[in-house]
Each structure stands twice: as structure tokens, then as C-alpha cells.
Amino acid sequence: MSIGEVLSELRPEFPDITISKLRFLEAEGLVEPYRAPSGYRRYTRDHVARLRYVLAAQRERYLPLRVIREQLSAYDRGEKVVGLTAVAATISNAPPPRPPDPAPVPVVAPPPVHPRPTLPTTVASPTEVGEPRLSRAQLMERVGVDEATIADLEQYGLLAVGPNGYFGPEALTIARIAAQLSEYGLEGRHLRAYRATADREVGLLAQLMPPLARQAGPGGRSQALQTVHELAALCAALHAALVRAGLRQVLGS
Q: Which positions ≥6 away from 68 have C-beta within 8 Å?
């Protein structure tokens, strides 16, 4: 399979997967696809099974890549590793890998279709946006991007390290969305307009905050945080609707 075909197969189970993430996992030595004479990556069912295990271990068990790499190395040595049964079954039932074609025709994957965000009926708690705090290394690992990408997002104001030296809970969401947009050729310099728009919205909505901030006690803080999330969700829905309306006009539909 080509990298685009692998992406299409994994995306239903892992919606956040990107080509950059697959390349990152390859660079980290967790999967080693074959290379056709033309240089294109070619994946077997074995490779896809390993990728599925790595992604599930990150998402469901929050294992760092170092631990996942050690488990896969132990499995490759023939050792029994808890949690790798499904991978072993997939690999053992897979047909033997076919050597790459001498002159394969590159398969161009269609642009990924991301589900439209819908306004939730219940407001997520702050910790559901991402980790309470993330170091630079943790953020890079969770999103699957390199140092240059994080630095680019910092340069244009999309990410900022807090006074404690960690990124805040929204950093994971911001970095993941930016990584997905990069697949369409949008970099930090293209996204700085969103930072400016967000700052204007903050200035507008901050006028509502003083009365909420004066509410004392845990109950008052909880109500204030819920209001903040409701306002953010409404602004995001309005922004998305306006963008869709504008693009529809561009397309003449």
C-alpha cells in the first residue's frame, strides 16, 4: 500500500492521523516501510498492524514512544509482550509481503475529509481540551510533529509557553489542527490571522468576564468556566458558518 492508502485505512479508527504523523513514526523507528525504486513508501499489512498498535497505545494507554519502541523490539526478538496479541495475529495471518513493483504508479490519496464540527449539547470540561500541561517534548510526541513545527507555531503566536514553562491545555488541540492544516499547505504564517481574530474575540468577550470573576467560591468559578466554554463554542460555530458561507460564494453554489 502507498502512504495515502494507509492513511485512508487508519483514519476511521484514528481521525487525527496525518501523513506527517506516519512519517514521524517512521523517523522514530517504529515502522520501516519498504522503498520502491522510485523512492515511494510501500506498506504491508504487517506495517499497518504495527502502526495500529502504536497509535492505540498512545491514545488509550498514554504510553511514550520510548516504551512502545521497547515493546515492539521485544516482540521482534520473539518475546511475549502483553497487548501485542492482536498484532501477532494480524501479522501471522497476513500474506507474505510482495516485493515493490519495478516502476509503481504513484497513488495520490484524495484530500482527507474531516467531519464538520458541531456545537456540543454539553460543554466539555477544561481537561477534555487536552492535557492540563504539556512540555515541549510531550507536545511534539502527542501530535507527531518536530521541533521546527512547534517553533513555527510559536513564532506566529498560535502557541505560547506559560510562566511555568509548560504549554496550556488548549495547546494539544491547536497543534493537532495546525498539523492537519499543514497537509493542505497551510503553515504558521498563514494561520496568524486566526490569532488576530481570536484576540479580537477575547477583547470583546472579556467585557462579560468581570461579573463572573467576582463570583466567589467553587460554584462561582465552575459557572464562570462553563460560560467561557459556551462562549468559545458559539464563536467557533459562528466562525465556521461564516467561512463556509464565504467559500460557497467563491464556488458560486
A: 30, 53, 54, 57, 58
Whole-number Å distance between alpha carbons of 37 and 211: 66
pTM above 0.85, yes or no: no
Give the bridge partners for 41, in sequence order. 35
Report the CATH fold assignment for 3-93.
Answer: Multidrug-efflux Transporter Regulator; Chain: A; Domain 2 (1.10.1660)
Question: What is the three-class DSSP state of 179?
Answer: helix
C-alpha 38/C-alpha 107 separation (Å) is: 13
DSSP assigned state of 114: P
Distance (Å, rounded) from C-alpha 7 to C-alpha 104?
Answer: 18
Per-residue pLDDT tens over the stretch 125-162 = 333 344 568 889 888 888 888 888 899 999 999 999 88
For helices 45-61 and 65-76, the axis angle rounded to 10 degrees is 140
Per-residue pLDDT tens over the stretch 79-91? 877 666 555 555 5
Domain ranges of the chain: 3-93, 126-251
Residue 134's DSSP bridge partners are 167
